[in-house]
Amino acid sequence: MSGPSLKKQDAHTSIHEAALNEAKDLNQLFKTCLEKDEMDRAMQVAEIILEHWESRTLKHAEAEEEGLYQEMVSEKPKLEKTVHQLTRDHDLMRRIVSQVKESFEKKKADYEVLSLMEALIIIDEIHNEDEMNKLLANNES
């Protein structure tokens, strides 16, 4: 069973926005480090970014998949396709985070890594919009 705030559109939106804004701020800091050629600092920021995606966004995704999505499909079977699409978004984010992690393990912090982190944000923005508009819109639970 999911926490009650996951089913409430306003509360759920707040969760998403907080994590997404933090990711954007961290990406900007990472980009600034690259521009200033501060590679040691860039690696430190990169580690924080990776921890952010793993501990905030992907943990939230896991909670959604284990609770909210199953409950929503149980209550409204027509949402099954939407849940599959949303789960695919989570899978894409996990794959990109894994690629970023591999780069960091090789001590690689560059503009290619930044583009992967920007892709994470784009996917997450689309995912969040779809989740609010297709899954939680008009949810009265």
Can you walk through the features of this model?
The chain is an all-alpha fold. The chain has one domain. The protein is 85% helix and 0% strand. The protein has five helices and no strands. The chain has helices at 4-7, 9-35, 39-75, 80-105, 111-136. Helix 2 runs antiparallel to helix 3 (39-75), helix 3 runs antiparallel to helix 4 (80-105) and helix 4 (80-105) packs antiparallel against helix 5. The longest helix has 37 residues, at 39-75.
Average of the residue pLDDT scores = 91
- Strand percentage lies at under 5%
Unreliable spans = none
Query: What can be said about the biggest beta sheet?
Result: none
Number of continuous helical runs: 5
Topology:
Layout: H1 4-7, H2 9-35, H3 39-75, H4 80-105, H5 111-136
Helix pairs in contact: 2-3, 2-5, 3-4, 4-5
